[in-house]
C-alpha cells in the first residue's frame, strides 16, 4: 500500500485523514525505531494540525517513546530541532502548500533529512499489517515540550550570513507570510537583520484567508502591488510551512523560483571553485548555463525534496533546490529552507551592493511555463505513456527520470504525475517565450484529449 508521495503523506481531512488513519500511521511509525528513543513532533497552522499532533504524540508515547513537542514551527525549523535535540526521528504534521482541506505527515531522520524511501516502505508495510506497537504500562513514554525552537532556528540562520553587513543596508522588506508558520520566525529574522518589515497576512490561520498557500505569481498579487507602493527594496512570500521563499523585485516584478536557484547556484559554484548542483528534472536549462562556465555540474533527480537532499548528500553538492522556491543550503542543513533562502538573498544583495533586479540581470534567461491538469489518479500513468508515444518519436532526446521529458528544437516539454494531488503537471522550457508557449499549448491539447476533458 503506497502512502507516501513526493513529499510525505497528504490527504483530505475527514474523508481519508481520520483519527483512525492517524493512529494507525503513528503506530506504524512507532514500530520502526527502538523503544524508548526520543521523537520530535511539530506541526503547522492548519485547523487540524494540533489535534492530529495530539494523536501522534499519544500513540508514540504509548509505544514507549519519549516525545518532545516543539510546537507550531516551519518545517525546516522542525528538521533543525530534530538534530539539535538528538532525536531518533521527527514527525511533522503539515500539508505544505496544499489547499486548507488537506493535511499530512513528514518523517524526519535523525540527521535532519526526510527519511529515505526504504524507511517509508517499512512504515507502509507496518501500516498494512497493523501490528501493535503498544508497550506495558511501566514502559509508557513521556510527552515533553521544548519551547525554544523558533529562537534557536533563527539564531542558526543568522550565524550563516553576515548580519552586520546586511543590517548596515537598512533594507525595507514587504513580507507576505501567507498565514503560515513563517509568522513565528521570518519577521523576527528580518528585524534581526536590520530590516524595516511590512507584513501581509502575518497571523497564522489554517484556512489561509489572505491568499492560497502556494506563493505563485497570481497568488501574491497584493505583495507585488505593495512592494513599489511602500518603496521597498524587496518582497518575500512563503508557502504554508515555510520551506520555500519567493521574491518580488522593487518594481513589483515577481521573480520565478528558477531565477533565484540559478543566481544562488552560480554564487555557490563560484565560491567553491566548482561543484555539484542538484535539482529535479523540472529545472530550466538556465541553471546549467549559469554554473557550467564556472566549473559547475548539474545532477538531475526526480521531483521531491527527499530526492534532492539524498542526492546532495551522496554527491557532496554545494547547493540544491527546486524551481518552486525550495532551496537547500548544505552548509546549514540538508532541508528546503525558506528562511535560509531569504537570509542568503539579502546577504548577496548586501555583499554586492546591488538590488535583486540588477543581480538577476546578468543571468541566462529562459521561460519556464507550468500548467496543472486535473486527472484521475488511475489515469495518470497511462496518460503519461500516451504522451510519450505521441511526442517521443523524432525528438532530440527523451528523459524518463520522472514522467517523460522530451527535447524538441528550441526547448523541452515535461509531463509528470503530481505526487501530492490528482493532477498532471506540465512544464515547458525555452529561451524563446513564444516557443515555450507553443510547446505548452500543443502538449495541453494532446493531454486533455487523452484524458477526455
UniProtKB/TrEMBL annotation:
Keywords: Isomerase, Magnesium, Metal-binding, Phosphoprotein. It holds the Pfam family PGM_PMM_II. It comes from mine drainage metagenome. One of its GO terms (biological process) is carbohydrate metabolic process. Residues 2-129, 152-252, 257-363 form the Alpha-D-phosphohexomutase alpha/beta/alpha domain. This is Protein containing Alpha-D-phosphohexomutase, alpha/beta/alpha domain I. The keyword Magnesium applies. Transmembrane segments: none annotated. Residues 379-443 form the Alpha-D-phosphohexomutase C-terminal domain. SUPFAM superfamilies: Phosphoglucomutase, C-terminal domain (SSF55957), Phosphoglucomutase, first 3 domains (SSF53738).
Amino acid at each position: 500500500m503506497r502512502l507516501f508521495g513526493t513529499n510525505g503523506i497528504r490527504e483530505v481531512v475527514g474523508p481519508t485523514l481520520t483519527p483512525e488513519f492517524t493512529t494507525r500511521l503513528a503506530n506504524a511509525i512507532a514500530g520502526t525505531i527502538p523503544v524508548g528513543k526520543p521523537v520530535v513532533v511539530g506541526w503547522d497552522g492548519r485547523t487540524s494540525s494540533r489535534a492530529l499532533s495530539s494523536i501522534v504524540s499519544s500513540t508514540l508515547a504509548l509505544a514507549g517513546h519519549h516525545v518532545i513537542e516543539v510546537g507550531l514551527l516551519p518545517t525546516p525549523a522542525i528538521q533543525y530541532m530534530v538534530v539539535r535535540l538528538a532525536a531518533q526521528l521527527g514527525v511533522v504534521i503539515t500539508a505544505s502548500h496544499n489547499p486548507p482541506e488537506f493535511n499530512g505527515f513528514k518523517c524526519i531522520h535523525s540527521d535532519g533529512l526526510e527519511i529515505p524511501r526504504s524507511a517509508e516502505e517499512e512504515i507502509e508495510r507496518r501500516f498494512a499489517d497493523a501490528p501493535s506497537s503498544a508497550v506495558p504500562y511501566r514502559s509508557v513514554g513521556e510527552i515533553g515540550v521544548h519551547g525554544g525552537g523558533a529562537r534557536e532556528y533563527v539564531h542558526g540562520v543568522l550565524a550563516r550570513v553576515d548580519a552586520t553587513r546586511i543590517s548596515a543596508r537598512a533594507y525595507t522588506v514587504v513580507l507576505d507570510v501567507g498565514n503560515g508558520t513563517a509568522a513565528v520566525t521570518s519577521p523576527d529574522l528580518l528585524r534581526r537583520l536590520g530590516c524595516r518589515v511590512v507584513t501581509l497576512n502575518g497571523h497564522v490561520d489554517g484556512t489561509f484567508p489572505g491568499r492560497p498557500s502556494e506563493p505563485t505569481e497570481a497568488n501574491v498579487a497584493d505583495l507585488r502591488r505593495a512592494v513599489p507602493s511602500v518603496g521597498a527594496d524587496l518582497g518575500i512570500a512563503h508557502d504554508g510551512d515555510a520551506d520555500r521563499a519567493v521574491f518580488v523585485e522593487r518594481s513589483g516584478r515577481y521573480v520565478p523560483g528558477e531565477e533565484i536557484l540559478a543566481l544562488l547556484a552560480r554564487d555557490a559554484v563560484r565560491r567553491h571553485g566548482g561543484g555539484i548542483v542538484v535539482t529535479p528534472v523540472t529545472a530550466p536549462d538556465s541553471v546549467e548555463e549559469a554554473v557550467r562556465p564556472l566549473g559547475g555540474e548539474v545532477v538531475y533527480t526526480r521531483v521531491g525534496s527527499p530526492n534532492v537532499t539524498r542526492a546532495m548528500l551522496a554527491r557532496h553538492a554545494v547547493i540544491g533546490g527546486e524551481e518552486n522556491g525550495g532551496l537547500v543550503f548544505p552548509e546549514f542543513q540538508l532541508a528546503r529552507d525558506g528562511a535560509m533562502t531569504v537570509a542568503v538573498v539579502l546577504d548577496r544583495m548586501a555583499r554586492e551592493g546591488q538590488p535583486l533586479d540588477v543581480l538577476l540581470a546578468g543571468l541566462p534567461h529562459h521561460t519556464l511555463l507550468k500548467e496543472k491538469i486535473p486527472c484521475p489518479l488511475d489515469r495518470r500513468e497511462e496518460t503519461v505513456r500516451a504522451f510519450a508515444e505521441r511526442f517521443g518519436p523524432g525528438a532530440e532526446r527523451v528523459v524518463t527520470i520522472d514522467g517523460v521529458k522530451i527535447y524538441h528544437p528550441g526547448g523541452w516539454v515535461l509531463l509528470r504525475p503530481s505526487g501530492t494531488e490528482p493532477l498532471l503537471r506540465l512544464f515547458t522550457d525555452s529561451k524563446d517565450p513564444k516557443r515555450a508557449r507553443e510547446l505548452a499549448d500543443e502538449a495541453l491539447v494532446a493531454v486533455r484529449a487523452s484524458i477526455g476533458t
